[in-house]
Amino acid sequence: MGEVWAGAHVVRGVPVAVKFLRPRRRNSERTARAFRDEVRAMARLDHPAIVYVYDFGLAPTGTAPRSGGRIPDGSPYLVMELLDGEPLDRFRGRMAWPPLRAVLLGLRDALGHAHARGVLHL
């Protein structure tokens, strides 16, 4: 749904991930609604295995030239905690049971937390 950039939160002084809607999809009302729903859902969650949401909004005027045209002015964005780790798709193939078990237990706990608050990850 979007493109994620690494950044820094200027007030908190912490590294963040900034997710922008893809330019070709940002004008779709359905996509904008899904994005707003994602932000609202994430903001209700407070769990160590779920990223913290700091902010959201629309990219200000001047974003397009500063991003080399990749992020148009007015693009919806979400600012969230930047995770330290590897994406799961890096671990293609077989994993040893102990690290796989740890990943699955963390996912179970995070999904249980979200489901208990009415948030479904589809």
Question: In summary, what is this structure?
Answer:
It is built from three helices and four strands, in the order E-E-H-E-H-E-H. By secondary structure, the chain is α+β, with helices and mostly antiparallel strands. The protein has a domain at 2-84: Phosphorylase Kinase, domain 1 (2-Layer Sandwich), CATH 3.30.200.
Folded structure, characterized:
The chain has helices spanning 29-43, 63-66, 97-116, and strands at 2-9, 14-21, 53-58, 76-81. Strands 1-2-4-3 form a 4-stranded antiparallel sheet, with helices on one face. The radius of gyration is 16 Å and the shape is globular. With 122 residues, the chain is α+β, with helices and mostly antiparallel strands.
Labels describing this entry:
122 residues, Phosphorylase Kinase, domain 1, four-stranded antiparallel β-sheet, alpha+beta, 3 helices
